[in-house]
Design brief:
The protein has 648 residues and is of the alpha/beta class. Helix content is 60%, strand content 14%. It is built from 24 helices and 16 strands. The protein has helices at 2-12, 20-51, 58-81, 89-117, 123-143, 148-167, 172-221, 231-248, 262-269, 271-288, 313-328, 356-373, 383-401, 404-407, 442-452, 455-470, 485-489, 491-504, 517-522, 524-537, 553-558, 578-593, 606-614, 631-637; strands at 252-260, 293-299, 302-308, 331-332, 337-338, 341-349, 378-380, 408-417, 423-434, 438-440, 478-482, 511-515, 540-546, 563-566, 597-600, 619-620. The strands form three sheets. An eight-stranded mixed barrel has the order 8-9-11-12-13-14-15-16. It has a five-stranded mixed beta sheet with strand order 2-3-1-6-7, with helices on both faces. It has a two-stranded antiparallel sheet with strand order 4-5. α6 runs antiparallel to α7 (172-221), α9 runs antiparallel to α10 and α16 packs parallel to α18 (491-504). Bound molecules: ligand C2E and calcium ion (2 copies). One calcium ion binds at residues 427, 482, 514, 544.
Length: 648
């Protein structure tokens, strides 16, 4: 019982490490307050000592004050030095524990010294001693307000002997002073207790506020799903590293990653799987990153990398390829194992960008370009692209200002039955003749129109013209028409196309609508709904450029396709190249097994044609039969029985 009471008192009077933030705050306050306290003690002690120089022995009037001075100066210097130090909880605790000890020693020293001077003084001088003890005690307690243990110790050590000593002096004014000091000390201790509580509460509130601020900062700058820095922080980091690279004359690179095939995973397996895939992708990127590489998630399935001091173009591309390789490795998630790929667009400072904006924009352009030409790989922005960007900006301007109704025309390329050589349909292909730019090929202006959001208008004009031409053809000749991603991913676009087909009076069964895989990648669900609507109308749906993009058979199965069009890259030299031969053969088998029609595109030579006949190909299109021809040439073309000749 006594032991536990003593332990409690011991704890109360010592410095504990229960609240590290409180220790640091006490340290902070004390670094200016404690020197003040020692100064008060020192000046008051010397003031008292001088009055006793003549009457008291030198030990008490000179040597003890000198000893005080040395000790106090050492402590003052120690604390003044610590003013600019940011303490750890442990250093603060040690400093405060020392203060606690010195408070005890100072209390004992002041009391002992003052009372030992008492016998050498006259009544005035004794009054001075009482005043010194009372007022210095109050001063010290006030200076130690934020260290409750020290304040209480000083109050007890100075005041109890004081009160006892002067109460028994038999002098009424000293007895009155003792009672007065006792009351003031009691009140002061209450003030210390209350103030200390307020101080501790204020420190707690500050700590809480700091924690909340930190959390807010974290939320504002980190991506909540992957824990990576978010888009905002990416740009902050990029701006900082850019300035740094500029000052140090170092190379800096930005990489933007877009996942290929994320959308279908999300659509087929659900958002939970999609989310865990993104988390895994983030982790793989972090694992691959060295200390000079920052990884961020920009949003959706887009990630970004900052490569500080990035090395040569070759090294950068090699790093990019390593990342693409890692992303191709299947992801084993809780509910499914999925395989995707990722493309990276890269750009570098100072070679290919002058500012942060350009660095980012050019990496983004490289990504866009890479996705079109070599999906799933790293692509570095080059000086040639600057020319391309200028060209596409010019094209976009021209498209916006053009009289497209007038300038756009349609040409038609026959799609022929390989076995009977009958023309089954024509594919409508857009042509743009601009007074300033001349003939602009669709491979140039369609992508620009898609990026600028202008392709819907082009589709409308071309479809209108193509349908009008088709209405003049025999009933057994169909029309194949290219739709772009935006046409089928916007509900308005689909409604307009349906309206145009219905009002043309042409049997929708004569119509094949060609779509590319890019549309599927962009928004699988929307594209699927659009395709189902068009299919329900009676139109055929052909998957264009099959084999060039990211194709998954499960996706093909999920779509109501009626045809695939094998891209011409597989057909050229099919008679000489065994790899092409095998690919086309297996694609023909695949289409047959899935009950789909199959058009082989880009057949240019008799040898290629003969090989396709042998493989049992069904439909073909290409220069071997005919290039795209104008509306007026079609009537001449149709009645002809196609001989094995090239019509150019
Ligand atoms: P695509 O849909 O794959 O069209 C086939 C392209 O291959 C056409 O180029 C055609 O002229 C060309 N071609 C046909 N046979 C051969 C051949 O034997 N050898 C070679 N080397 N090429 C052949 P074109 O007309 O320049 O069109 C290029 C692309 O522009 C089209 O590729 C299509 O993606 C797009 N496009 C054309 N017209 C339209 C349109 O009205 N709307 C949309 N959205 N895209 C269009
Ligand atoms: Ca096509
Ligand atoms: Ca094609």
């Amino acid at each position: 019982m006594l032991k536990s009471l003593l332990a409690r008192i011991g704890r109360f009077l010592s410095v504990t490490d229960e609240n590290p933030e409180l220790l640091k705050a006490q340290f902070e306050v004390f670094s200016s307050q404690v020197p003040l306290m020692y100064s008060i003690v020192l000046i008051s002690a010397w003031a008292l000592a001088f009055t006793f120089i003549a009457s008291a022995p030198p030990l008490l009037s000179i040597y003890v004050p000198i000893f005080f001075t040395v000790v106090c100066c050492v402590r003052i210097i120690g604390w003044l030095r610590s003013r600019h130090v940011v303490p750890t909880a442990e250093t603060a605790r040690k400093a405060l524990a020392r203060t606690n000890l010195f408070a005890l020693l100072i209390g004992v020293a002041i009391t002992g010294w003052s009372l030992s001077l008492y016998p050498y003084g006259d009544p005035y001088m004794r009054g001075n001693i009482a005043f010194f003890m009372a007022i210095t005690g109050v001063g010290v307690i006030i200076c130690l307000l934020q260290l409750r243990s020290a304040a209480i110790m000083v109050a007890i050590i100075i005041n109890i002997p004081f009160v006892l000593y002067f109460s028994f002096s038999g002098i009424p004014s000293f007895i009155g002073m003792a009672i007065n000091t006792f009351l003031v000390a009691g009140a002061l201790l209450m003030v210390v207790t209350v103030q200390f509580r307020h101080f501790a509460a204020a420190v707690d509130a500050r700590t809480l506020l700091e924690t909340v601020n930190e959390e807010n900062f974290r939320l504002a700058n980190l991506d909540s799903l992957t824990g990576l820095t978010n888009r905002r922080q990416f740009f902050t980091n990029l701006t900082e590293t850019f300035c740094d690279a500029k000052t140090k004359g170092q190379r800096l690179a930005v990489g933007i990653i877009d996942l290929d095939g994320f959308k279908p995973v999300n659509d087929l397996y659900g958002h939970v799987v999609g989310d865990s895939l993104l988390v895994e992708v983030g982790q793989r990127l972090v694992t691959l990153a060295d200390q000079n590489t920052h990884v961020s998630r920009l949003g959706g399935d887009e990630f970004a990398l900052i490569f500080c001091d990035c090395g040569s173009d070759e090294e950068l591309l090699a790093k990019g390829e390593r990342i693409c390789d890692a992303l191709r490795t299947p992801f084993v998630l809780a509910d499914a194992t999925v395989q995707i790929s990722g493309s990276i667009g890269l750009s570098t400072f100072p070679q290919l960008a002058e500012n942060v904006h350009e660095l980012y924009e050019r990496a983004d352009y490289a990504l866009y370009h890479g996705k079109r030409t070599n999906r799933g790989h790293a692509f570095l922005f080059s000086i040639d692209h600057v020319v391309e960007i200028e060209q596409s900006t010019r094209l976009e301007q021209a498209l916006r200002n053009a009289d497209l109704q007038q300038e756009l025309t349609v040409v038609f390329q026959p799609i022929v039955d390989i076995q009977t050589r009958r023309t089954m349909a024509f594919e409508a292909l857009a042509r743009w003749n601009n007074p300033a730019l001349g003939n602009v090929p669709p491979a140039l202006f369609i992508p620009v129109a898609e990026r600028a959001g202008l392709v819907g208008g082009i589709t409308r004009i071309i479809l209108e013209k193509a349908l009008a031409t088709t209405s003049n053809w025999p009933e057994n000749v169909g029309l194949s028409f290219n739709l772009s991603t935006q046409d089928i991913c916007s509900p308005d676009g689909v409604v307009r196309i349906v309206g145009m087909i219905l009002s043309s009076g042409i049997d929708p069964q004569r119509l094949d609508l060609e779509i590319t895989e890019t549309a599927m990648m962009y928004d699988f669900e929307r594209a699927k709904t659009a395709i189902e609507t068009l299919k329900a109308l009676g139109c055929g749906i052909a998957l264009d450029d099959f084999g060039t993009g990211y194709s998954s058979l499960s996706q093909l199965h999920a779509l109501p396709l009626t045809k695939i069009k094998i891209d011409r890259t597989f057909v050229s030299n099919i008679d000489k190249n065994p790899a092409s031969y095998k690919i086309v053969k297996s694609l023909l088998t695949l289409s047959r097994d899935m009950g789909l029609g199959c058009v082989v595109e880009g057949v240019e030579t008799r040898e290629e044609m003969d090989t396709l006949i042998k493989l049992g190909g069904q439909l073909a299109q290409g220069y071997f039969y005919s290039r795209a021809i104008s509306e007026s040439q079609i009537n001449d073309f149709l009645p002809k029985t196609l001989e094995d000749q090239q019509v150019v």
